[in-house]
Amino acid sequence: MRLSSFVIAVAALAIGLSAQAHAQAHEGAFRYKWIDSHGLAHYSDSLTDDAIKSGYDVVNDQGMVISHVHKLLSPTERAAAQKQAEQQAAQERAEQQRARDDIQMLNAYPDEDSFKAEQQGELDNLDQQINTTKINLRSQEKALADLLARAADVEHTKESVPKFLSDSIAKQRNVVANQRDVLLRQQADRDATVQQQQQQLQHYRDLKAAQKDDRGY
Fold first, then answer.
1. Domain that holds residue 34
2. Residue spans of beta strands (DSSP E) within the chain
3. Number of structural domains the chain divides into
4. Fewest beta carbons within 10 Å, which of 30, 39, 54, 124?
């Protein structure tokens, strides 16, 4: 009975030592790999300054990468990396927003006719604004013409044009010039809107075609 207990204890001790040796051997099997500035690969069982500076991979005895540790970055490199990460995140957010907008557009306009009707409504509003500006411009041009006629009548009498009349003419000319600028901007905005709508319509058609392909009909 005592002999059996002794045999069991020896066996347990042997198993424990074997497991510890296996763990130590397994731990020692991990190595480090890094690439130098010339593109050459290096391996080591311990970390070197070059590996820490360059960044390194932790690999096992089969050469498989367990993990990667990035190189140490200077303040300038860290700032550049941060900026790049922010730009990439912003781009991803923009792409996600475009995808949401596409889904919303398809839900809002089930067919091309409804989409075109919405676009035409936008153009109608712009045309109404342009027409209102044209009416105002004609009114302001008439007011300027009346002031100029009054000044001409004064000059025909060989008298000097009164200062208040000259000031009124100068002010009215500015009003007319501003109205003309507004009209030019509105017309340019309408032209840009037409071009944008053409692109949007094509994008809508592409989305509908892709949606049809996904559904298979």
1. 2-69
2. 31-35, 41-44, 56-59, 65-69
3. 2
4. 39
